[in-house]
Amino acid sequence: MAKILIVDDEVGIRELLSEILRDEGHDIILAENAAAARAARNAARPDLVLLDIWMPDTDGVSLLKEWSANGQLTMPVVMMSGHGTIDTAVEATRIGAMEFLEKPIALQKLLAAVKRGLARIKPAHAPSPLGLAAFSRSVPLRDLRKRLEQMADKSRIILLRVGPGSLAELCGRSLQRVGTPWLDLSLTTLPIELNVLEGARNGVLYVPELIYLSRPQQKNLVFAMDRLERHAQTLVVATEHRPEELVEHGWEERVLARLFEVSLAPPALAEIRDEIPEIASQILLHYVEAGEVPPRRLSSAALNALRNQPWGGGYGELKAAIKSLALGTLEEEIGMDEVAHLLVKTPTAALGLPLDLPLREAREIFERLYFEHHLQIDGGNMTRLAEKTGLERTHLYRKLKQLGISVGRRNEEGSA
């Protein structure tokens, strides 16, 4: 029969529901609070969850939101409460709960709800991209999400002033509602058409770095900016450069004035180092839920090693590292040795980097050595290079061109 997870802080209710459902032939998993429910859900992958609303650590509605945000709401959830209100029931249903049972729960209502839940056809689909809502236990990320949502409530344009270790993509995804489009304006140089914007209605338009946009792409951005209200869209752009630097790269001052009107400086990964273990765990869980990697978990030592990395490439670099670790590890648990093997090695070519040059020149030399090193060890495979560096493909090609590194496109998807 089915695996059913019962989450309730009252032992009497857990035992009663467990006895009834075991008599029906179901396998029962019990959890006394939200922390135990998280662990049980990840370990057992239940077919259905009976979830109490009022619990001592995290309430059931917040846990439901967390599962929905990180792509784990893949099973029917029936909410339970002895003190529920209509507003609470409506909110839980909006988030994704199947239905609401009021305590004391009548036997027939319980069995009927379980039967309906198990009969529900669950279409296979990839979980939504991770947003800040997936990290509900992190105070800095929770506060960052509130600031973003507060800004988005009053402005359709948000500029993220970022630096190395950027969380720009994660911020942008946080403003993307479930099921709505995501349009990266940096991925095409062709003139954007009205039907494209109409297809992205209610969605998020995104630019990961303004300075890399060509003139045609800048025109596309202005075209989209002028129609944000019409298509009910939010524009999220990021840059680590000042307006005067962008003017030197061909941007018009009037456009920059609009873009910089509402801005936020999200923390870099290095500034929230203590949050990296949770971020890494959620990224891995998301990949597992999406079927992109085999079931894996990070050991405590591995999480600590990830926490101590600089992550200059930001969220994209961290995601690429987690995916590489999960695909390259043979055991179910990813240990510290795997992390060290993937991340700690220093490219030997960079050891001779002169330190008496101006920073701009030294950085350019390092970047050239860095990219040439990885191109060499991966045989020119651009897919692997993009994953390792955490750069999107368009930006990667533009970066290599700026550094004078010639790369043929025949190896974009090349084999190992």
Measured distance between first and last alpha carbons? 44 Å
Shape by Cα distribution? globular
Give me the side-by-side strand order of the main sheet.
2-1-3-4-5
Along the chain, the helix and strand elements come as EHEHEHEHEHHEHEHEHEHHEHEHHEHHHH
- Low-confidence segments, given as residue ranges, are 345-351, 409-416
CATH architecture of the largest domain: 3-Layer(aba) Sandwich
CATH class label of the largest domain: Alpha Beta
Number of domains: 4
Supply database-style keywords.
416 residues, Helicase, Ruva Protein, domain 3, alpha/beta, Rossmann fold, five-stranded parallel sheet
In short:
The protein is of the alpha/beta class and 416 residues long. Helix content is 46%, strand content 12%. The protein contains 18 helices and twelve strands.
